[in-house]
Amino acid sequence: MQIEVEDHGDPTRPVVLLVMGLGMQLTAWPPALVAELLQAGYRVVRHDNRDIGLSQHLHGLGVPNLALAAIQHRLGWPLRPPYTLRDMAADAVGVLDVLAIPQAHVVGVSMGGMIAQRMALDAPGRVLSLTSVMSSSGARRLPPPEPRVLRALLGRPANGSREAAIDHTTRLFQLIGSPGFPQPEADVRQRVAEAIDRSHHPAGVARQMVAVVADDRARHLAQVRCPTLVVHGRADPLVPFACGEDTARRIPGARLVAVDGMGHDLPPGVVQRLLAELLPFLSSAAHAR
């Protein structure tokens, strides 16, 4: 598996591994967050998850039928995803292997938080601490996304053009954005355009989506033993706040931080709130271990 990696900072420093969410590339991590981690004395490693960005695209696995997968999930039938979140967690551990990093603080957002949870379960000796941001335990009875958000997430651009893809993704990001920390539409659109120009691979997003709904880690989260921080927005329309509450409840000793006005994105105001919790947590977690 070929994985695109960016590695910044002093190689002798403690490592923070940043794991991005569904369909999102390593460039989606706000530069201010990366800079503050570097300034605090951490080595920061980011990667594109498989099937997204500049990492390997798995064309031979086909494109799943998302409508059928949704019905199967709702009925409780087993899903057979092209690959699993455990595979994606193994990719992240593989990044640490290649860079000869024995342990890292793992910070994941959205699907990245789910991958980070899987890392803490499957490779506990490699995870110094777990930070799960706007993510979920994956328990079946948790509330789903708001209907308008789900329609936009499963919808398709009007045509296959670059502009249509930018329009579609910008609308989705505005729907799930933080109402307490609004961002100008022009800024959102520019970031979307830059991401699409770097790589645009909808089939990979579909495969990742099925991997998310097929995972059954919720009943295993009681086995997580590393220090855990859960950060979630009270205004998240994609992964409702109850999902963060459930994650923190299932992981022994986890601390839940609720952010008023935060949706499902990382605008500057949310980044500052996140860093205010994350930096002291990383320091205390290192001492605890």
Report the portion of residues in β strands: 5-15%
CATH class: Alpha Beta
Order of helices and strands: EEHEHHEHEHHHHEHEH
Largest sheet: 7 strands, mixed
Cα-atom Rg, whole angstroms?
A: 18 Å
Continuous helix count: 10
In quaternary terms, these chains amount to single chain
Helical content stands at 40-55%
- How are the strands of the biggest sheet laid out side by side? 1-3-2-4-5-6-7
Count of domains: 1
State the end-to-end CA separation.
31 Å
| CATH fold group | Rossmann fold
Shape: globular
Task: Calculate the mean pLDDT score and round it.
Answer: 95
Tell me the CATH superfamily: Alpha/Beta hydrolase fold, catalytic domain
Number of strands: 7
Uncertain regions spanning at least 5 consecutive residues: none
Explain what the structure shows:
The protein is an alpha/beta fold. It has one domain (5-288): Alpha/Beta hydrolase fold, catalytic domain (Rossmann fold). Helix content is 44%, strand content 13%. It is built from 10 helices and 7 strands. A 7-stranded mixed beta sheet has the order 1-3-2-4-5-6-7, sandwiched between helices. Helix 1 (31-39) packs parallel to helix 10 (268-288), helix 2 (66-75) runs parallel beside helix 8 and helix 6 crosses helix 7 (185-198).
